[in-house]
Amino acid sequence: MNTRPLDAVALTILIIGCINWGLVGFFDFNLIDAIFGNWVWISRVIYAVVGIAGIYAFTFFGRLASDSQGNIE
């Protein structure tokens, strides 16, 4: 897979988001709320950015499929 800088940024954001959701699921501890406290608007922005990164990550599947078929971008 031919990676781009945006791919690395999106993957990093997704990993951070996954760690936060793991903490919520296992320990009922929300790291974003712990860091930013009552700043609800900034928490919403962070969650939106994680969501956008997740949507962008769907493009990885298309590129993986084309790479597995031997196509060159």
Poorly predicted regions are: none
Strand percentage: under 5%
Number of strands: 0
Query: What assembly state would you assign to the polypeptide chains in this entry?
Result: single chain
Q: Which descriptor suits the 3D outline?
A: elongated
How far from one another are the termini?
A: 9 Å
Helix content: over 70%
* Rg value: 16 Å
Order of helices and strands: HHH
Largest beta-sheet details: none
Key terms for this structure?
73 residues; mainly alpha; elongated
Structure description:
The protein has 73 residues and is an all-alpha fold. It is built from 3 helices and no strands. The longest helix has 29 residues, at 40-68. It starts with a helix and ends in a 5-residue tail after the last helix. The mean pLDDT is 87.
Give the SSE layout.
Blueprint: H1 5-27, H2 31-36, H3 40-68
In short:
The chain has 73 residues and is an all-alpha fold.
